[in-house]
Input
Amino acid sequence: MQMNDYIELVNSKLNEFIQIQYPETIFKSMKYTVTLPGKRLRPILCLETCRLLGGEISDAIPTACAIEMLHAQTLIHDDLPCMDNDDYRRGKLTNHKVFGEAIAVLAGDALLTFAPQIITKYSENLSPSVLIRVLNEYFQYAGAYGVIAGQVVDIESENAEKIDNKEKTLEYLHIHKTSDLFKLAMRTGAIIAGADDEKISVITEFAHNFGLAFQIADDILDEISTFEEMGKTLGKDKEEGKLTYVSLYGLEESKCKLSCLFKNCCDIMNKHNIQSEILEDMIESIKKRVGI
Amino acid sequence: MQMNDYIELVNSKLNEFIQIQYPETIFKSMKYTVTLPGKRLRPILCLETCRLLGGEISDAIPTACAIEMLHAQTLIHDDLPCMDNDDYRRGKLTNHKVFGEAIAVLAGDALLTFAPQIITKYSENLSPSVLIRVLNEYFQYAGAYGVIAGQVVDIESENAEKIDNKEKTLEYLHIHKTSDLFKLAMRTGAIIAGADDEKISVITEFAHNFGLAFQIADDILDEISTFEEMGKTLGKDKEEGKLTYVSLYGLEESKCKLSCLFKNCCDIMNKHNIQSEILEDMIESIKKRVGI
Output
């Protein structure tokens, strides 16, 4: 499968899984953000990991799509006026700008239940015990122990001046806010493929490095990119005095760290004989955008 | 078990399930609303149904507590400024008044993942396939097909004047906004007890009537009660022109309908030889408060 085939597959399934029905507003609002054009990195990582470890891509589709829905949920609520207060996302109006704040809150809420429901509803080929393992991964990384822990520390990192151990706080924030969803995607892909614990731990290590790299690249692009390139308002973290990799270490050291994390990713792939054009393409495309 | 034993059991388990850890803000915020004093009707309905149908109460505790957490989640987000904008709930400041809006949004989000996680984490005695059945019930009633569908129609019922079929809309709204969580509680209690489909359908019928009665009682109390009695601001639905049982049918007819629904509940209990002081107490206590 090429990258575009994966994107097309994920898009068509996302579209299929969210059927508009009464009361239409909520399903339209959920579908609006879930189907905004995107790179679909997380679902593709799930599907590609499943394939690499000998599983059937089709078995991982519900989980892959659930993770993209979860990701969309974080975007809807992150963009709310009481959070980042953003009007644009992926070049389009944010959910609350189109549907109003109340519906945007409920659409995010609905997706948090809809996503794991997609996993149980459409994973006919998974045994009940594998299904429960997948759900447990989902719950662990999606909630207060995972992504949300990262978001809370992110919010609390406004006025970064007041934080005691900035390095440690930033690492915690990046691991949970960003790496956790990449870990979830790749670990569930591996579990669905029937991988053993050793392979799952290799995959987790890759996802950890890849996720941190992705977040540092995002911090760099927030500094050097334009609205047109990113499709969202930039420079807000800086404005709010938020803790970012660039604010703490500067642009050059951030680029070095990014190179180093991607080198870790390639080393893991080489050492464990993981050959994936898709993973290589993802890394190269991020490197190119950041200019390293 | 008496009502107070149930309340004590549920409270102690809710307290135990939410351990405060880093980042503390989010767990404190979740715990704040979940542990506000309350009647714990939904979890008790789950536990009592399980007991009535021959199951072990202890097997249903994680699910019962998850449903109370889900209920607390709906309160946190309902009270937000962009929703009902309420400052008080159960006589205490609402979540966003204590923790700020951003954390209140995230605490609600976190509970939506935390609640089903509690079910998978602590239901050691349930087989994987029963566990998945319970989760499927949870997903169906908690999300866009259940409670949230009701909340959306509730929001859209502002300016009730514009609604075409008010009677049908109101019924839909009540069924989903309120009955669905009662159905979820009693159906999962029955499933955990190993009840057959026929018993589950009797239980569902009871929950349907009880839930509607509960919502009509709430509409009546919103009209005739005081802040001190209810612990929340009253009369807001009327102010916003929202569709309620009382606004559509008047106070007297609402009381008649309530009596009729409770009679249905008692008929179901008699017909199927369900003897429960707890269910009878719940009905009597609501009747007393409303004055019928």
